[in-house]
Protein backbone atom coordinates (compact mmCIF):
# COMPACT_ATOMS: atom_id res chain seq x y z
CA UNK A 1 0.00 0.00 0.00
CA UNK A 2 1.36 3.47 -0.82
CA UNK A 3 0.29 7.04 -1.42
CA UNK A 4 0.77 7.78 -5.09
CA UNK A 5 -0.58 11.27 -5.37
CA UNK A 6 -1.25 13.99 -2.81
CA UNK A 7 -2.76 17.44 -3.16
CA UNK A 8 -4.07 19.99 -0.73
CA UNK A 9 -5.53 23.49 -0.66
CA UNK A 10 -5.38 26.05 2.18
CA UNK A 11 -3.77 23.57 4.54
CA UNK A 12 -1.72 25.32 7.25
CA UNK A 13 0.99 27.37 5.50
CA UNK A 14 0.16 26.02 2.00
CA UNK A 15 -2.17 27.80 -0.42
CA UNK A 16 -1.92 24.90 -2.83
CA UNK A 17 0.35 21.90 -3.32
CA UNK A 18 0.35 18.86 -5.54
CA UNK A 19 2.88 16.05 -5.66
CA UNK A 20 3.51 12.57 -7.04
CA UNK A 21 5.28 10.32 -4.60
CA UNK A 22 7.72 7.46 -4.88
CA UNK A 23 6.70 4.01 -3.67
CA UNK A 24 9.88 3.89 -1.54
CA UNK A 25 11.63 6.72 0.29
CA UNK A 26 10.48 10.35 -0.12
CA UNK A 27 12.53 13.06 1.59
CA UNK A 28 11.31 16.61 2.21
CA UNK A 29 14.10 19.06 2.86
CA UNK A 30 13.81 22.71 3.87
CA UNK A 31 14.48 25.31 6.53
CA UNK A 32 12.74 25.54 9.88
CA UNK A 33 9.12 26.57 9.47
CA UNK A 34 9.05 25.84 5.71
CA UNK A 35 6.13 23.40 5.98
CA UNK A 36 7.72 19.93 6.09
CA UNK A 37 5.85 18.76 9.18
CA UNK A 38 2.62 20.28 7.83
CA UNK A 39 2.94 18.11 4.76
CA UNK A 40 3.31 14.96 6.88
CA UNK A 41 0.26 16.07 8.85
CA UNK A 42 -1.77 16.23 5.61
CA UNK A 43 -0.85 12.57 5.01
CA UNK A 44 -1.82 11.78 8.62
CA UNK A 45 -5.28 13.27 7.98
CA UNK A 46 -5.86 10.91 5.06
CA UNK A 47 -5.05 7.89 7.20
CA UNK A 48 -6.45 8.78 10.61
CA UNK A 49 -8.97 11.55 9.77
CA UNK A 50 -7.26 14.06 12.04
CA UNK A 51 -4.08 16.00 12.71
CA UNK A 52 -1.28 14.29 14.58
CA UNK A 53 -0.49 17.48 16.45
CA UNK A 54 -3.62 19.49 17.05
CA UNK A 55 -7.12 18.11 17.68
CA UNK A 56 -8.87 21.30 16.46
CA UNK A 57 -9.55 20.88 12.72
CA UNK A 58 -10.36 24.53 12.06
CA UNK A 59 -6.90 25.59 13.23
CA UNK A 60 -5.37 23.70 10.31
CA UNK A 61 -7.12 26.00 7.81
CA UNK A 62 -4.67 28.45 6.30
CA UNK A 63 -4.85 31.78 8.06
CA UNK A 64 -7.31 34.03 6.20
CA UNK A 65 -9.01 31.15 4.30
CA UNK A 66 -12.30 29.52 5.28
CA UNK A 67 -11.73 25.88 4.33
CA UNK A 68 -9.04 23.30 3.64
CA UNK A 69 -9.12 20.29 1.39
CA UNK A 70 -6.75 17.31 1.23
CA UNK A 71 -6.91 14.67 -1.54
CA UNK A 72 -4.91 11.48 -1.77
CA UNK A 73 -4.77 8.56 -4.18
CA UNK A 74 -3.46 5.35 -2.65
CA UNK A 75 -2.49 2.15 -4.39
CA UNK A 76 -3.63 -0.86 -2.41
CA UNK A 77 -3.97 -4.52 -3.41
CA UNK A 78 -3.69 -3.60 -7.07
CA UNK A 79 -6.57 -1.10 -6.86
CA UNK A 80 -7.03 2.58 -6.09
CA UNK A 81 -8.33 4.19 -2.91
CA UNK A 82 -9.21 7.86 -3.38
CA UNK A 83 -9.54 9.67 -0.07
CA UNK A 84 -10.65 13.27 0.48
CA UNK A 85 -10.89 15.30 3.65
CA UNK A 86 -12.48 18.74 3.76
CA UNK A 87 -12.96 21.14 6.64
CA UNK A 88 -14.98 24.37 6.42
CA UNK A 89 -15.09 26.78 9.32
CA UNK A 90 -18.08 26.07 11.61
CA UNK A 91 -19.09 22.99 9.66
CA UNK A 92 -18.77 19.27 10.18
CA UNK A 93 -15.63 17.65 8.76
CA UNK A 94 -16.24 15.85 5.47
CA UNK A 95 -14.41 12.63 4.78
CA UNK A 96 -14.84 10.59 1.61
CA UNK A 97 -13.55 7.26 0.38
CA UNK A 98 -13.93 6.80 -3.37
CA UNK A 99 -16.38 9.74 -3.48
CA UNK A 100 -18.63 8.23 -0.79
CA UNK A 101 -19.10 9.93 2.58
CA UNK A 102 -18.35 7.89 5.66
CA UNK A 103 -21.20 7.38 8.12
CA UNK A 104 -18.65 7.15 10.92
CA UNK A 105 -15.03 8.31 10.69
CA UNK A 106 -14.08 5.36 12.92
CA UNK A 107 -14.85 3.07 9.95
CA UNK A 108 -11.90 4.55 8.06
CA UNK A 109 -9.34 3.88 10.82
CA UNK A 110 -7.13 0.95 9.92
CA UNK A 111 -7.85 1.01 6.17
CA UNK A 112 -4.63 2.91 5.38
CA UNK A 113 -2.46 2.36 8.47
CA UNK A 114 0.27 4.83 9.29
CA UNK A 115 3.00 5.33 11.86
CA UNK A 116 4.41 8.78 12.58
CA UNK A 117 7.65 9.40 14.45
CA UNK A 118 7.95 13.03 15.52
CA UNK A 119 9.88 15.15 18.05
CA UNK A 120 6.51 15.78 19.76
CA UNK A 121 6.43 12.10 20.76
CA UNK A 122 8.60 13.03 23.72
CA UNK A 123 5.28 13.75 25.47
CA UNK A 124 4.78 9.94 25.63
CA UNK A 125 7.74 9.80 28.02
CA UNK A 126 7.49 13.06 29.93
CA UNK A 127 3.77 13.80 30.17
CA UNK A 128 1.07 12.06 32.21
CA UNK A 129 -0.35 8.57 31.70
CA UNK A 130 -3.03 9.78 29.26
CA UNK A 131 -0.38 10.18 26.54
CA UNK A 132 0.76 6.57 27.00
CA UNK A 133 -2.79 5.23 26.97
CA UNK A 134 -3.41 7.23 23.77
CA UNK A 135 -0.38 5.53 22.23
CA UNK A 136 -1.63 2.00 23.06
CA UNK A 137 -5.18 2.85 22.01
CA UNK A 138 -3.98 4.25 18.71
CA UNK A 139 -2.08 1.06 17.83
CA UNK A 140 -4.85 -1.32 18.89
CA UNK A 141 -7.60 0.64 17.16
CA UNK A 142 -5.76 0.47 13.82
CA UNK A 143 -5.96 -3.34 14.03
CA UNK A 144 -9.22 -3.90 15.90
CA UNK A 145 -12.28 -2.00 14.66
CA UNK A 146 -14.36 -2.84 17.77
CA UNK A 147 -11.77 -1.45 20.17
CA UNK A 148 -12.65 2.23 19.63
CA UNK A 149 -16.36 1.52 20.17
CA UNK A 150 -15.51 -0.32 23.37
CA UNK A 151 -13.49 2.65 24.62
CA UNK A 152 -16.30 5.09 23.79
CA UNK A 153 -18.80 2.85 25.63
CA UNK A 154 -16.51 2.59 28.66
CA UNK A 155 -15.99 6.36 28.86
CA UNK A 156 -19.71 6.96 28.65
CA UNK A 157 -20.51 4.64 31.57
CA UNK A 158 -17.56 6.08 33.49
CA UNK A 159 -18.97 9.61 33.06
CA UNK A 160 -22.42 8.40 34.20
CA UNK A 161 -20.97 6.66 37.23
CA UNK A 162 -18.93 9.73 38.15
CA UNK A 163 -21.95 12.03 37.96
CA UNK A 164 -23.89 9.60 40.14
CA UNK A 165 -21.06 9.71 42.70
CA UNK A 166 -21.30 13.52 42.65
CA UNK A 167 -25.05 13.31 43.21
CA UNK A 168 -24.47 11.06 46.21
CA UNK A 169 -22.10 13.66 47.66
CA UNK A 170 -24.43 16.60 46.88
CA UNK A 171 -27.75 15.11 47.94
CA UNK A 172 -26.68 12.35 50.29
CA UNK A 173 -29.03 9.86 48.62
CA UNK A 174 -28.86 7.79 45.48
CA UNK A 175 -30.34 4.90 43.62
CA UNK A 176 -28.23 1.84 44.54
CA UNK A 177 -29.74 -0.12 41.66
CA UNK A 178 -28.54 2.44 39.16
CA UNK A 179 -25.05 2.29 40.63
CA UNK A 180 -24.97 -1.48 40.34
CA UNK A 181 -26.09 -1.26 36.68
CA UNK A 182 -23.25 1.18 35.97
CA UNK A 183 -20.80 -1.05 37.85
CA UNK A 184 -21.82 -4.07 35.84
CA UNK A 185 -21.44 -2.21 32.52
CA UNK A 186 -18.13 -0.71 33.58
CA UNK A 187 -16.78 -4.11 34.65
CA UNK A 188 -17.77 -5.92 31.47
CA UNK A 189 -16.53 -3.19 29.12
CA UNK A 190 -13.38 -2.43 31.18
CA UNK A 191 -12.43 -6.10 31.43
CA UNK A 192 -12.69 -6.53 27.66
CA UNK A 193 -10.46 -3.48 27.09
CA UNK A 194 -7.98 -4.74 29.71
CA UNK A 195 -7.78 -8.16 28.03
CA UNK A 196 -7.13 -6.56 24.64
CA UNK A 197 -4.43 -4.28 26.07
CA UNK A 198 -2.80 -7.18 27.94
CA UNK A 199 -2.67 -9.47 24.91
CA UNK A 200 -1.40 -6.59 22.78
CA UNK A 201 1.30 -5.58 25.28
CA UNK A 202 2.61 -9.17 25.51
CA UNK A 203 3.23 -9.30 21.76
CA UNK A 204 4.30 -5.68 21.51
CA UNK A 205 6.92 -5.74 24.31
CA UNK A 206 8.81 -8.53 22.62
CA UNK A 207 8.93 -6.66 19.31
CA UNK A 208 9.94 -3.45 21.11
CA UNK A 209 12.88 -5.14 22.87
CA UNK A 210 14.19 -6.44 19.56
CA UNK A 211 14.05 -2.99 17.95
CA UNK A 212 15.71 -1.23 20.86
CA UNK A 213 18.56 -3.73 21.02
CA UNK A 214 19.12 -3.40 17.28
CA UNK A 215 19.12 0.42 17.37
CA UNK A 216 21.38 0.74 20.41
CA UNK A 217 23.51 -2.28 19.44
CA UNK A 218 22.79 -3.84 22.84
CA UNK A 219 24.37 -0.84 24.60
CA UNK A 220 21.55 -0.38 27.11
CA UNK A 221 19.07 -2.42 29.10
CA UNK A 222 15.59 -0.97 28.84
CA UNK A 223 12.20 -2.16 30.07
CA UNK A 224 8.67 -1.58 28.94
CA UNK A 225 5.89 -2.78 31.25
CA UNK A 226 2.11 -2.53 31.23
CA UNK A 227 0.59 -1.29 34.50
CA UNK A 228 -3.06 -1.81 35.30
CA UNK A 229 -4.89 -2.29 38.60
CA UNK A 230 -6.66 -5.18 36.82
CA UNK A 231 -3.39 -7.11 36.79
CA UNK A 232 -3.76 -7.44 40.59
CA UNK A 233 -7.44 -8.17 41.00
CA UNK A 234 -10.61 -8.47 38.97
CA UNK A 235 -12.41 -5.24 38.20
CA UNK A 236 -15.64 -6.05 40.08
CA UNK A 237 -13.71 -6.69 43.31
CA UNK A 238 -11.66 -3.53 42.83
CA UNK A 239 -14.79 -1.41 42.40
CA UNK A 240 -16.34 -2.87 45.59
CA UNK A 241 -13.14 -2.37 47.59
CA UNK A 242 -12.88 1.23 46.44
CA UNK A 243 -16.50 2.25 46.88
CA UNK A 244 -15.89 4.29 50.04
CA UNK A 245 -12.92 6.02 48.47
CA UNK A 246 -14.87 6.76 45.28
CA UNK A 247 -17.68 8.31 47.32
CA UNK A 248 -15.24 10.60 49.11
CA UNK A 249 -13.39 11.53 45.91
CA UNK A 250 -16.68 11.79 43.95
CA UNK A 251 -15.17 9.89 41.04
CA UNK A 252 -14.13 6.38 40.01
CA UNK A 253 -10.59 6.11 41.30
CA UNK A 254 -9.65 2.74 39.78
CA UNK A 255 -10.12 1.23 36.36
CA UNK A 256 -8.57 0.87 32.93
CA UNK A 257 -8.82 4.67 32.58
CA UNK A 258 -5.84 4.77 34.94
CA UNK A 259 -3.68 2.22 33.06
CA UNK A 260 -0.11 3.23 32.32
CA UNK A 261 3.14 2.07 30.76
CA UNK A 262 6.38 2.00 32.69
CA UNK A 263 9.57 2.93 30.81
CA UNK A 264 12.91 2.12 32.46
CA UNK A 265 16.58 2.28 31.57
CA UNK A 266 19.00 0.21 33.68
CA UNK A 267 16.18 -0.22 36.21
CA UNK A 268 15.52 3.53 36.57
CA UNK A 269 12.88 5.85 35.18
CA UNK A 270 13.51 6.75 31.52
CA UNK A 271 11.89 10.14 32.10
CA UNK A 272 14.32 11.11 34.87
CA UNK A 273 17.48 9.21 33.97
CA UNK A 274 17.47 8.73 30.18
CA UNK A 275 19.62 11.04 28.04
CA UNK A 276 17.90 12.90 25.18
CA UNK A 277 19.37 10.45 22.66
CA UNK A 278 18.33 7.45 24.76
CA UNK A 279 14.81 8.84 25.12
CA UNK A 280 14.67 9.43 21.38
CA UNK A 281 15.93 5.89 20.68
CA UNK A 282 13.31 4.54 23.10
CA UNK A 283 10.55 6.40 21.26
CA UNK A 284 11.81 5.30 17.86
CA UNK A 285 11.88 1.67 19.06
CA UNK A 286 8.32 2.08 20.37
CA UNK A 287 7.14 3.43 17.03
CA UNK A 288 9.04 0.86 14.98
CA UNK A 289 7.47 -1.82 17.14
CA UNK A 290 4.11 -0.26 16.31
CA UNK A 291 5.09 -0.48 12.64
CA UNK A 292 6.10 -4.15 12.89
CA UNK A 293 2.98 -5.01 14.90
CA UNK A 294 0.72 -3.33 12.32
CA UNK A 295 2.54 -5.06 9.46
CA UNK A 296 2.14 -8.47 11.12
CA UNK A 297 -1.54 -8.06 11.96
CA UNK A 298 -2.58 -6.31 8.72
CA UNK A 299 -0.49 -8.40 6.35
CA UNK A 300 0.81 -5.30 4.54
CA UNK A 301 3.12 -2.40 5.33
CA UNK A 302 1.79 0.86 6.77
CA UNK A 303 3.13 4.28 5.72
CA UNK A 304 6.07 5.42 7.84
CA UNK A 305 6.45 9.15 8.51
CA UNK A 306 9.76 10.22 10.06
CA UNK A 307 9.75 13.85 11.12
CA UNK A 308 13.13 15.35 12.01
CA UNK A 309 14.44 11.87 12.75
CA UNK A 310 18.20 12.50 12.53
CA UNK A 311 18.35 15.17 15.20
CA UNK A 312 20.00 14.03 18.48
CA UNK A 313 20.80 10.52 17.27
CA UNK A 314 24.46 9.55 17.00
CA UNK A 315 25.81 8.37 13.63
CA UNK A 316 25.68 4.69 14.63
CA UNK A 317 22.00 4.90 15.47
CA UNK A 318 21.19 6.85 12.31
CA UNK A 319 23.01 4.22 10.22
CA UNK A 320 21.25 1.37 12.04
CA UNK A 321 17.89 3.03 11.51
CA UNK A 322 18.50 3.66 7.83
CA UNK A 323 19.83 0.12 7.42
CA UNK A 324 16.41 -1.08 8.50
CA UNK A 325 14.85 1.09 5.81
CA UNK A 326 17.24 -0.29 3.21
CA UNK A 327 16.64 -3.91 4.23
CA UNK A 328 13.23 -3.58 2.69
CA UNK A 329 11.52 -3.89 6.05
CA UNK A 330 9.55 -0.78 5.27
CA UNK A 331 7.21 0.16 2.47
CA UNK A 332 6.67 3.82 1.66
CA UNK A 333 8.66 6.19 3.87
CA UNK A 334 8.43 9.98 4.28
CA UNK A 335 11.41 11.73 5.86
CA UNK A 336 11.90 15.40 6.70
CA UNK A 337 15.21 17.12 7.36
CA UNK A 338 16.79 20.56 7.20
CA UNK A 339 19.94 19.48 5.33
CA UNK A 340 19.98 18.28 1.74
CA UNK A 341 23.65 17.19 2.11
CA UNK A 342 22.88 15.06 5.15
CA UNK A 343 19.93 13.29 3.51
CA UNK A 344 21.88 12.64 0.32
CA UNK A 345 24.92 11.38 2.24
CA UNK A 346 22.87 9.00 4.43
CA UNK A 347 21.08 7.41 1.50
CA UNK A 348 24.17 7.23 -0.66
CA UNK A 349 25.96 5.42 2.16
CA UNK A 350 23.34 2.70 2.29
CA UNK A 351 22.77 2.76 -1.45
CA UNK A 352 19.04 3.45 -1.37
CA UNK A 353 17.19 5.51 -3.95
CA UNK A 354 15.33 8.49 -2.56
CA UNK A 355 12.93 10.97 -4.14
CA UNK A 356 13.91 14.44 -2.96
CA UNK A 357 11.54 17.37 -2.51
CA UNK A 358 12.59 20.93 -1.65
CA UNK A 359 10.22 22.73 0.68
CA UNK A 360 10.32 26.52 0.82
CA UNK A 361 7.67 28.54 2.64
CA UNK A 362 4.62 26.64 1.56
CA UNK A 363 6.01 25.47 -1.80
CA UNK A 364 7.15 21.97 -2.68
CA UNK A 365 9.42 21.24 -5.64
CA UNK A 366 10.46 17.76 -6.74
N1 LIG B 1 -3.30 27.48 10.00
C1 LIG B 1 -2.14 27.99 9.56
N2 LIG B 1 -2.13 29.02 8.67
C2 LIG B 1 -0.97 29.53 8.21
N3 LIG B 1 0.25 29.10 8.60
C3 LIG B 1 0.29 28.09 9.47
C4 LIG B 1 -0.88 27.48 10.00
N4 LIG B 1 -0.53 26.50 10.87
C5 LIG B 1 0.83 26.49 10.89
N5 LIG B 1 1.33 27.44 10.06
C6 LIG B 1 2.73 27.78 9.80
O1 LIG B 1 3.45 26.65 9.36
C7 LIG B 1 4.81 26.84 9.72
C8 LIG B 1 5.38 25.59 10.37
O2 LIG B 1 5.48 24.61 9.43
P1 LIG B 1 6.11 23.20 9.82
O3 LIG B 1 5.88 22.87 11.24
O4 LIG B 1 5.62 22.26 8.79
O5 LIG B 1 7.66 23.55 9.61
P2 LIG B 1 8.87 22.56 9.37
O6 LIG B 1 9.31 22.75 7.95
O7 LIG B 1 8.52 21.19 9.79
O8 LIG B 1 9.94 23.21 10.34
P3 LIG B 1 11.01 22.58 11.37
O9 LIG B 1 12.21 22.25 10.56
O10 LIG B 1 11.25 23.75 12.26
O11 LIG B 1 10.38 21.42 12.06
C9 LIG B 1 4.89 27.96 10.73
O12 LIG B 1 5.44 29.09 10.09
C10 LIG B 1 3.44 28.19 11.09
O13 LIG B 1 3.18 29.53 11.40
From TrEMBL:
GO cellular component: cytoplasm
Highest taxon of source: Bacteria
Lineage of source species: Bacteria, Pseudomonadati, Bacteroidota, Sphingobacteriia, Sphingobacteriales
Domain RecF/RecN/SMC N-terminal residue range list: 2-346
Cellular compartment(s): Cytoplasm
An example Gene Ontology molecular-function term: ATP binding
Similarity comment: family membership: Belongs to the RecF family.
Role this protein plays: The RecF protein is involved in DNA metabolism; it is required for DNA replication and normal SOS inducibility. RecF binds preferentially to single-stranded, linear DNA. It also seems to bind ATP.
Binding positions (ATP): 30-37
The keyword DNA repair belongs to this UniProt entry's keyword annotation: yes
Name recorded for this polypeptide: DNA replication and repair protein RecF
PANTHER family per the UniProt record, alphabetical: DNA REPLICATION AND REPAIR PROTEIN RECF
PROSITE patterns on file: RECF_1 (PS00617), RECF_2 (PS00618)
Organism whose genome encodes this protein: Mucilaginibacter achroorhodeus
Keywords of this entry: ATP-binding, Cytoplasm, DNA damage, DNA repair, DNA replication, DNA-binding, Nucleotide-binding, SOS response
Any single Pfam family the record assigns to this protein: SMC_N
GO biological process: DNA replication; DNA synthesis involved in DNA repair; double-strand break repair; SOS response
Record-linked SUPFAM superfamilies: P-loop containing nucleoside triphosphate hydrolases
InterPro entries associated with the record: DNA-binding_RecF, DNA-binding_RecF_CS, P-loop_NTPase, RecF/RecN/SMC_N, RecF_2
